Amino acid sequence: MEEPSEAIQTVALPRCGQCGRVLRPGFRLRGGDLRCGQHVIQHPAVWKRSLATAAIVGTVLTAINQGNFILGHGFSQQILLKMGLTYCVPFCVSTSGALGAARIRPETPGG
Ligand SMILES: [Zn+2]
């Protein structure tokens, strides 16, 4: 009787470069470093890019949507709340786009 273990192939699964967790799926940063979901969110490059996008796009959107009111009435609490939410939108979109672009899936046999 033949041993069934001979038919099993070992596949080296990609692991997070920070914690060593197996990536299912994971993320590849610029330069090729691999990260799990927790550590890609904490990576400074992701934060910096998202904050820069939020600063630029949030300012433009605030000027378009609230500019007339701010010039006429100044900054009320309601406007400040709306401005905060306006900056959150491009931050979330930029972060989501960066994670989507960096996402990798481990190769699976036959798939
Ligand atoms: Zn990790």
Q: What keyword list fits this structure?
A:
3 strands, binds zinc ion, three-stranded antiparallel sheet, rod-shaped, mainly alpha, 6% strand, 111 residues, 3 helices, single chain
Descriptive account of the structure:
The chain has helices spanning 37-41, 44-73, 77-102; strands at 26-28, 34-35, 103-104. It is mainly alpha-helical and 111 residues long. The chain has one domain. The longest helix is centred in the middle third of the chain and has 30 residues, at 44-73. The chain starts with 25 loop residues before the first strand and ends in a 7-residue tail after the last strand. Bound molecules: zinc ion.
Low-pLDDT stretches are none
Cα gyration radius (Å): 22 Å
Order of helices and strands: EEHHHE
Terminal Cα separation, in Å?
30 Å
Care to count the β-strands? Answer: 3
Q: Count of helices? A: 3
Indicate the mean pLDDT.
88
As for the number of domains, it is 1
Strand content: 5-15%
The ligands found in this model are: zinc ion
Strands side by side in the biggest sheet: 2-1-3
